[in-house]
Amino acid sequence: MNQKQFINRLIQIIALSKVPGKVVKVALENEDGYVVYGVEISTSNGIKDVKVDAENGKIFKIDGDYNEKDNNDKEVDDDKADNDKETNDDNIQ
């Protein structure tokens, strides 16, 4: 396995950790000035496009065809989500 194949597989694993399904396509893209890998994943709810930051490997954004049970396009901010969880945990007694 060469370096390009290794990175491609790693990006797929990162994307699939957030959106289970079958990877259809992986491509290097520019998303609002950020270099990201766009990973198209076929799911039971349609195609999801997971954007993985090419610099740090974090999920940048998830968007795609959603059914009524899903949210609209999602901006992912793991740090904010972690902070919100900590704040909520502090309020539980």
UniProtKB/TrEMBL annotation:
Biased composition (Basic and acidic residues): 62-74, 82-93
Pfam family name, one: PepSY
Chain ranges of the PepSY domain: 14-62
Region of interest: Disordered: 62-93
Protein name: Peptidase M4
Source species: Methanocaldococcus bathoardescens
